[in-house]
What we know:
Blueprint: H1 4-18, H2 24-31, H3 58-64, H4 80-93, H5 103-112, E1 119-125, E2 134-140, E3 144-149, E4 154-158, E5 162-168, E6 171-176, H6 184-187
Antiparallel strand pairs: 1-2, 1-5, 2-3, 3-4, 5-6
Family: Belongs to the eukaryotic/archaeal RNase P protein component 1 family.
GO molecular function: ribonuclease P RNA binding
Function: Component of ribonuclease P, a ribonucleoprotein complex that generates mature tRNA molecules by cleaving their 5'-ends.
Amino acid sequence: PQGSEEAKAFISAFLKRSMPKMKDEAIQDILTRKAVVLEHYSKKKAKQKRKKPKGFTAKQRRELRLFEIEPEQQRYTLFLPLHELWKQYIRDLCHGLKPDAQPHMIQGKLLKADLHGAIVTVTKSRCPSYVGITGIILQEFKHVFKIITEEDKLKVVPKLHNVFSLEIDGFISYIYGSKFQFRASERSAKKFKLKGTIDL
């Protein structure tokens, strides 16, 4: 059996472990009372950082050449079926492009539509060498269009300071590239405002 001194030392040590934030004087003061309320300190759980799904960085995409079109695939005729699919997509989007359709309604839908597969022509440009380029849009980026021409040449045409026209079922729409500098995914949620004359 433990003696009184050993019991006292055990209780003192036990209380010190149970109440690590209290000083010895405060613990001795508690011992003079009839009841001792032990405190409980829970360990703080380390917050787990949410792991974001890792995609390829821009550098990795360039190294893997994900957006490059191989030279043997740069043929206009290869992408004509894509253009036919795009025309059907626009007809469905605009409910058939009927003659009595309101032009501004069609224009609004075209502004948000996916243009991959559309045949476009550069009608105005600050750089004269771009004027007249016609072809199928193969890729759309935030600042440029990649267009394949009938001569099987891949052209990279900037949107800035260029006006593009596209025609489908007799309806001609003009796109001001300077006001069109968005990714295709961003355009679908963008609210375009009707404006008057826009300078290049």
